[in-house]
Amino acid sequence: MVKTKTVDENNFFDIKPLKDWGLIVFPLSMSGLNNKQSIDPIINWLEFFGDKKAGEPKIGINFIYCDFLYLNSNEPSINLKEKFTHQMVSHVNGLKNAIYKKRKIFQIQHAAHFQTWGNLYLEVEGDFNSHLDKIEKLYREDNQFRDYIKEDSKFYKKILTKTQLAFFIEEHLMTYLILSKRVKLRNEYVQGREKWILLAYPGIPPKALIYLLQKNPLKFFYENPFIGLYNLLNKKFYDYNNIDLNSWDYK
Q1: Where are the domains of the chain?
Q2: Is 50 exceeded by the pLDDT of residue 137?
Q3: CA separation for the pair 1, 26 (Å, rounded)
C-alpha cells in the first residue's frame, strides 16, 4: 500500500547526529564527477558530517561510481569504458589523496570504501535480474509509476527514450534495494554492523523512486530508519514516508 498522510508530509528537516554503526552512501553520477560531485565539494560534505552529524565514531562512507548504469545508452561501449575508466581512477585517487591530507580530521582512513555499480549486482540479496523483471512489469501495469517517470523526465530535462527509461528503472531498483538493506555494502571499518544506511546526494529525489519505496512491490520489511534521501545542498532529509506525491512539486 502507498503511504497514508502524516502531520509532517512534504515538510523536510535536517537529521540529528548519527549514532550506532551505520553507512553514508554517496552514489556518484559519472556526469557529475567533474562538477557537482568533484573532490572539493565531497571533502566539504565529509567535513560537515564529521563536524555536525557524527554522534559516535561508528560511521563508514561508501562511494558508489555508477558506471554500469550508464551502459543504458546508445553510445558505443568501448567509448564509455575508456571515458569512465579514466574518470573513476582519477576521481578515486584524488579523493584518497584529499582524505589522507586531512588525516587529522578523517582519522579512520579505512572507513572510506570505493566500489562501482557493477559490483552491486553480485551483492544483491536474491536475483537482481528477477527483481528487475518485476519492476519492469510494474512499469507496464502501473499507470501511476509510468506517470511519475514521465514527470521526472520533464523535471530533470531528459527525453524519455528506451535507454533513458531503462536507466531510470535500474537506478530506482538499485536504490530501493540499497535502502531496504538488500545489498551487501562492504566497508572495512563497519564490517557489516550497520544499523542504518543514509543515502546522500546533491539534489532532489525523483517522484517515481519515492513511489516505488512507498508502494514496496517486493514486500520488504524496512529495517533502515532512513528510507529517503539526504539532500547535500539544502541539508535536509527527504523522508519518503512523509511525502504526498499528489501535492509535492519537487520542493
Answers
A1: 23-242
A2: yes
A3: 29
Give the separation between CA 20 and CA 22, rounded to whole angstroms: 6
Which tens digits make up the pLDDT trace of 185-225? Answer: 999 999 999 999 999 999 999 999 999 999 999 999 999 99
CA dihedral 239, 178, 184, 104 (to 10 degrees): -60
DSSP designation for 18: B
Which runs of consecutive H residues, i.e. helices, occur in 38-127? 39-48, 77-101, 117-121
Q: For domain 23-242, give its CATH number from 3.40.50, 3.30.70, 3.30.200, 3.30.420.
A: 3.40.50
Helix (H, G, I), strand (E, B) or coil at 194: coil
Contacts of range 41-47, beta carbons closer than 8 Å, 24 or more positions apart:
41/202, 41/232, 42/95, 43/95, 43/98, 43/99, 43/102, 45/200, 45/232, 46/99, 46/106, 47/102, 47/105
pLDDT in tens, 78-94: 999 999 999 999 999 99
Local structure of 196: helix, strand or coil: strand
Neighbour count for residue 22 (Cβ, 10 Å): 23
Percent pLDDT > 90 in the chain is 95
DSSP assignments along 103-170, one per residue: TTTS--GGGEEEEEHHHHHTTBSS-HHHHHHHHHHHHHH-HHHHHHHHHHHHHTT----HHHHHHHHH
CB-CB neighbours of 17 under 10 Å: 10
**Order of strands across the sheet with 59-65?**
112-116, 59-65, 22-28, 196-201, 228-231, 236-239
